[in-house]
Amino acid sequence: MSDSELQAELERLRAENARLKNKGAGGLSLKVSEKGAVSLYGMGRFPVTLYKEQWLRILASAPEIETFIRENDSKLKAKE
What we know:
Elements (H helix, E strand, L loop, with lengths): L2 H23 L3 E4 L5 E4 L6 E3 L1 H9 L1 H10 L9
Antiparallel strand pairs: 1-2, 2-3
């Protein structure tokens, strides 16, 4: 490989590395699992995978969950 080709490859790899780093810091993403469930990525090391009905139950309970968290804030730890 010539110097210009090596430089171009180095720049491509740097750009890809930056894109991958930003993807992880970007937040949450959703995918459909092989078994037809919804997988939520970005919460931790492993995805949270539940079936559609389970997600809908959680989403319907969101106000109660938020109230519970506020009421128990002093007992709960925050991940830093």
